[in-house]
TrEMBL record:
It comes from the Bacteria. The keyword Signal applies. Residues 48-377 form the Glucose/Sorbosone dehydrogenase domain. The keyword Signal applies. This is PQQ-dependent sugar dehydrogenase. PANTHER family: ALDOSE SUGAR DEHYDROGENASE YLII (PTHR19328:SF75), HEDGEHOG-INTERACTING PROTEIN (PTHR19328). InterPro entries: 6-blade_b-propeller_TolB-like, Glc/Sorbosone_DH, Quinoprot_gluc/sorb_DH_b-prop. Keywords: Signal.
Length: 383
C-alpha cells in the first residue's frame, strides 16, 4: 500500500511538471501594477464583429459575421458593397477575419476569410479572398485559397490572417469535419491529415502561392501551403514584433486552451493529445504530451476561449509594453499576459463580464477591442 501511494505521488508530480503554472493564483504582487484604463465606445449596435483592421490613414475596416463589411472614417461608418455571394453564416461560419496588406499604401489589397456554401452539398468550405476598395465597393475580388467543402457541422473554421516580417501570409483554419471529439478514436482526424487543409496553419505568398521553403510534411513529396498541423480551432494569430515568430492561440475542448509558438512543419497534437478533456467528461489522452508533438507555452483551464491576439508595442501603455492581449469568449474577459521572453509569467484580467471577439492595436497606439452582445468596438487608453 505504501509503495502504491508513493508511485501515485510521483506520477502526480510528473503530471504537474508538464502543465503551465496558473498565474492567477500566484500570490506574488504583479510586476506591472494596473494603471487606470480609460474605455470609450466607438461603435455599437452591430452583429458579431469578427474581423477588423486599419488602413494607413487610421480608417477602420470591420465586418459582421452575418456577411457585411464597413469602413469607419472619423465618426462616419459606411457599408461597403461587393462581398462574395456565397458567404454561409450558419453555425460558427460567416464573414470571419479581415486583414489589410502591410504594404497597402502601394498595392491596395485587403484580405478576408469566410465560410462558404458549396454547390451540390450541404457542407461548407473556407475561402480566402483579397480585394481593393473603389468608391465604397469591393473591386478586383480574387479567391486565393479554398479549403475543401467537407465541414459537415459548420463549426471550427478558425480563422485568422497574419503577415510575417518577410511578407508571407499565414491563415489559420480549424478542424472542420464531421464533429469535434478528442482522442485516438476520434472520428475527425482532419488536423492530423496533412492531405487536407483543415486543422492547419497555412503559409503562402500574398498572392496565394506556395513558398518554396515551406515544409515537406510526412507522406508528401513537395511543399504545400501547410506550415503546421494538429490544430483544433485556432482563432488567434499574431507575429511577435520582437522575435518575428508567429504566435497562435486555439480552443481546446473542456479545458486546455493553448497558446503556441509556431514552428515549421510541427505537429501540435489535436486530436491525439490535449491538456483538456472532452465535453462529455471522457479523457482525451492519458498524458497531455507526446513524442513528436509541440507542447504549448501556456494553457488555460477552465477554457478561456481565446479569440484574437495583439502585442502591445506602444509606449503609451507604459509598463504594459511587450505584453500580449488575448480575447476571451468563454470566460468573458480580455487577458493581459506578462511575458519573460517566450514564457508567460502572469495573467491579468481586463473588461471582465464582456465576451471578447477580437483585439487590435491601432495606428495611434490605442487598443481596439471587439465585444459581443451587442457587437461593438471599444477603444482602450491609459489615463
Amino acid at each position: 500500500m505504501k509503495n502504491t501511494l508513493l508511485l501515485l505521488t510521483c506520477c502526480l508530480g510528473v503530471w504537474a511538471c508538464t502543465r503551465t503554472a496558473d498565474p492567477i493564483s500566484d500570490p506574488t504582487p504583479p510586476t506591472n501594477p494596473t494603471p487606470a484604463v480609460q474605455t470609450k465606445t466607438l461603435l455599437t449596435g452591430y452583429e458579431i464583429i469578427w474581423g477588423m483592421d486599419f488602413l494607413p490613414n487610421g480608417d477602420l475596416i470591420f465586418g459582421e459575421k452575418r456577411g457585411r463589411i464597413y469602413r469607419r472614417s472619423g465618426e462616419v461608418v459606411t457599408e461597403l458593397t461587393g462581398l462574395p455571394t456565397d458567404i454561409n453564416s450558419s453555425g460558427q461560419g460567416g464573414l470571419l477575419d479581415i486583414r489589410v496588406h502591410p504594404n497597402y499604401a502601394a498595392n491596395g489589397w485587403i484580405y478576408a476569410s469566410y465560410a462558404a456554401s458549396a454547390a451540390g452539398t450541404t457542407n461548407t468550405q473556407l475561402n480566402l479572398v483579397r480585394f481593393k476598395i473603389t468608391e465604397n465597393r469591393l473591386t478586383e475580388l480574387q479567391t486565393l485559397f479554398r479549403a475543401a467543402p467537407t465541414n459537415q457541422w459548420k463549426g471550427h473554421y478558425g480563422s485568422r490572417i497574419e503577415f510575417d516580417k518577410s511578407g508571407f501570409l499565414y491563415l489559420s483554419i480549424g478542424e472542420g469535419g464531421p464533429s469535434s471529439y478528442g482522442g485516438a478514436t476520434s472520428p475527425n482526424k482532419n488536423a492530423q491529415n496533412v492531405q487536407t487543409e483543415w486543422g492547419k496553419v497555412h503559409r503562402m505568398t500574398d498572392a496565394g502561392a506556395v513558398p518554396t521553403d515551406n515544409p515537406i510534411l510526412p507522406g508528401n513529396t513537395a511543399p504545400t501551403t501547410v506550415f503546421s498541423y494538429g490544430h483544433r480551432n485556432p482563432q488567434g494569430l499574431i507575429v511577435n514584433p520582437t522575435t518575428g515568430d508567429m504566435w497562435e492561440s486555439e480552443h481546446s475542448a473542456k479545458g486546455g486552451d493553448e497558446l503556441n509558438i509556431l514552428k515549421k512543419g510541427a505537429n501540435y497534437g489535436w486530436p491525439l493529445v490535449s491538456y483538456g478533456i472532452n465535453y462529455d467528461g471522457t479523457t482525451i489522452s492519458a498524458s497531455p504530451t507526446m513524442a513528436g508533438v509541440e507542447n504549448p507555452i501556456y494553457t488555460w483551464t477552465p477554457s478561456v476561449g481565446p479569440c484574437g491576439l495583439a502585442f502591445i508595442t506602444s509606449d503609451a501603455f507604459k509598463t504594459w509594453k511587450g505584453n500580449l492581449l488575448v480575447g476571451g469568449l468563454a470566460l468573458n474577459y480580455l487577458s493581459r499576459l506578462e511575458l519573460d521572453g517566450n514564457k508567460v509569467v502572469r495573467e491579468n484580467k481586463l473588461l471582465e463580464g464582456n465576451r471578447i471577439r477580437n483585439v487590435k492595436q491601432a495606428p495611434d497606439g490605442s487598443i481596439y477591442v471587439s465585444v459581443e452582445n451587442p457587437g461593438r468596438v471599444l477603444q482602450l487608453t491609459l489615463q
